[in-house]
């Protein structure tokens, strides 16, 4: 059975917990995601701990956002970890995104458009005019023009972004919540089934899996639901 297009966000307080979650979910999912909490606490060693012997893909979610020279240096600094995906903020601009792409030719550079924790009202207060979808589309086009091979957006925008950038770009959606579950600090959300039906390639899911009593079973359940959508 092929693993489901899910990146489990290993936002754990310690390395042992992250490695345990990774071991439980890797039979069911394609990818595990290491973010700022783990990386800043443990540094590069965390990657070997969560990768284990499974061959699971590593998504390094550092959301780099700085001047191009600094981002290029930061990207080169993680090259030896061989992440499958590395994130940068699309708002860093074309030259910054290009610098990351050039620095890491063997990694998929994913540009984060508008954080899924931001509501329409938050974005308006920040000076973003019009619906979130339009801002996300503008950032997506800029990022793809700069060479980004993947985009991070909310599942609510994924269909519009797909229509804008076409089939060749990997669309990654956090802000995924199974029906009826707590949205927590996420604002622009949809269910796993809706995200996949609307064209997402990879779903980032953290607490709905890692906060469950049995993360392996939770991952297996969502993976089965996605397979039903993909085969139906
Ligand atoms: O716009 C974004 C970009 C990244 N994230 C990250 O995804 C996970 C989501 O975790 P949940 O527990 O499923 O909410 C988390 O690691 C974020 O840093 C995002 O949520 N939104």
UniProtKB/TrEMBL annotation:
Gene Ontology MF annotations: orotidine-5'-phosphate decarboxylase activity
Gene3D superfamilies, alphabetized: Aldolase class I (3.20.20.70)
Active site: 63
EC number(s) per entry: 4.1.1.23
InterPro entries: Aldolase_TIM, OMPdecase, OMPdecase_AS, OMPdecase_bac, OMPdeCOase_dom, RibuloseP-bd_barrel
Keywords: Decarboxylase, Lyase, Pyrimidine biosynthesis
Binding site for substrate: 11, 33, 61-70, 116, 177, 186, 206-207
Swiss-Prot/TrEMBL catalytic activity: orotidine 5'-phosphate + H(+) = UMP + CO2
Family statement: Belongs to the OMP decarboxylase family. Type 1 subfamily.
Functional description taken from the UniProt entry: Catalyzes the decarboxylation of orotidine 5'-monophosphate (OMP) to uridine 5'-monophosphate (UMP).
Protein name, UniProt field: Orotidine 5'-phosphate decarboxylase
Taxonomic source organism: Sphaerisporangium dianthi
Lineage, broadest ranks: Bacteria, Bacillati, Actinomycetota, Actinomycetes, Streptosporangiales
């Amino acid at each position: 059975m092929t693993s489901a297009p899910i990146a489990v966000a290993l936002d754990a307080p310690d390395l042992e917990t992250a490695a345990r979650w990774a071991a439980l979910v890797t039979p069911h999912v394609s990818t595990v995601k290491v973010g700022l909490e783990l990386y800043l606490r443990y540094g590069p060693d965390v990657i070997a701990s969560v990768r284990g012997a499974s061959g699971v893909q590593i998504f390094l979610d550092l959301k780099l956002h700085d001047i191009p020279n600094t981002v290029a240096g930061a990207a080169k600094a993680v090259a030896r970890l061989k992440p499958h995906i590395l994130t940068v903020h699309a708002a860093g601009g074309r030259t910054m995104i290009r610098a990351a792409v050039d620095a890491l030719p063997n990694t998929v550079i994913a540009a984060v458009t508008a954080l899924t924790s931001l509501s329409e009202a938050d974005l308006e207060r920040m000076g973003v005019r019009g619906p979130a979808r339009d801002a996300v589309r503008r950032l997506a086009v800029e990022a793809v023009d700069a060479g980004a091979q993947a985009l991070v957006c909310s599942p609510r925008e994924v269909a519009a972004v797909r229509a804008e950038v076409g089939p060749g770009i990997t669309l990654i959606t956090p802000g995924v919540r199974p029906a009826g579950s707590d949205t927590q600090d996420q604002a622009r959300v949809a269910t796993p089934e809706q995200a996949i039906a609307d064209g997402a390639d990879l779903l980032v899911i953290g607490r709905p899996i890692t906060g469950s009593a049995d993360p392996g079973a939770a991952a297996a359940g969502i993976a089965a639901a996605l397979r039903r959508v993909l085969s139906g």
